[in-house]
Amino acid sequence: MVSSRFLRLILLLSLVSSSFSYTASPSNSTASDQTIRPQEEIQKLKLIRKELLKINKPAVKTIQSSDGDTIDCVPTHKQPAFDHPLLHGQRPMDPPEMPRGHNKDDASHEDSQLWSLTGESCPEGTIPIRRTTEQDMLRASSVRRFGRKIRRVRRDSTSNGHEHAVGYVSGRQYYGAKASINVWSPRVTSQYEFSLSQIWVIAGSFTHDLNTIEAGWQISPELYGDTYPRFFTYWTSDAYRTTGCYNLLCSGFVQTNRRIAIGAAISPRSSYKGGQFDISLLIWKDPKHGHWWLQFGSGALVGYWPAFLFTHLRQHGSMVQFGGEVVNTRPGGSHTSTQMGSGHFAGEGFGKASYFRNLQMVDWDNTLIPVSNLKILADHPNCYDIRGGANRVWGNYFYYGGPGKNPRCP
């Protein structure tokens, strides 16, 4: 009989061979580079499995989604957040006081994710977590930085190919922000590019001490393996260098909701000249304990970022941004065709261009108020642009986005 140890070795070597052929890049490798190095690949797989043990917690129930996701129902107190030394042995906080002026009559709601359309849900005392697979980590450009954004130096820089079209406010103390964000499925043309639309709450300088809290929707083939728009969160306290991550891929964000899976696909999505769908997101600082809470839709508290994760954001934000971001890897030496928003320019308007509406901020006394002195910025307006406005129904709003590569954006 063949020993189980030998069978495991054969399986490991077969995984090594398949993973190597997947990750090798024929455009910049030589014949010697393509020589299989089993020892290195075995070490890589060992590292991946070690990381997966940290990320994927034991589940009391598992739900299969129509988009291929596996959703694990994990006991709330065993989620990744509680791996943090300052959270060991604790339980999630009770819901905080809502900001005054909060309107619960928002159209978007928590039943807007594909996995929940099965009719199944996670039981009381658990939270849904999208399971991370070996394939997810093998797609990553770096196993050790899996789930993290590429470092950037300045907000208005396009270093590392990041391009933005945003509305922003600064010059005051900000204790939160709210907006309704139009959801689309923009085309992303490379595995290592993404397209997202989000809210940023920011403090510190745009160097080593940048603090950010981020939430919105994104399409990221590298992170998720597909091109569905997905609800996501992010945070960092040192300009994306060593702290923070997407979703629940590290200890940090504490989830309290059993009906919303961070990182899960959003449905329905908007269509050109067709139905329009948006999600409402609210981020605000709990006046009592100082944690930053996140609400999805009309009343679903998703969870919170503990105040101790941050330096500057322990007090307040100094800037709030709303808008889109893409990564441009300049394939073939020209601008990417990865789309932002709907893939159409702001001037096309409702039903064609993507939008943010009802832009608000949370003031020092925990009151939601309309943003004032909104400024708009597009890094490359010939590729992706933005146009602002205000009316009685949508309050402060803007259209934004674009196709990327076009005759004016070569």
TrEMBL record:
Residues 156-410 form the Neprosin PEP catalytic domain. InterPro entries: Glutamic_endopeptidase, Neprosin, Neprosin_propep. Keywords: Signal. This is Neprosin PEP catalytic domain-containing protein. It comes from the Eukaryota. The keyword Signal applies. Residues 80-111 are annotated as: Disordered. The keyword Signal applies. Gene3D superfamilies: Outer-capsid protein sigma 3, large lobe.
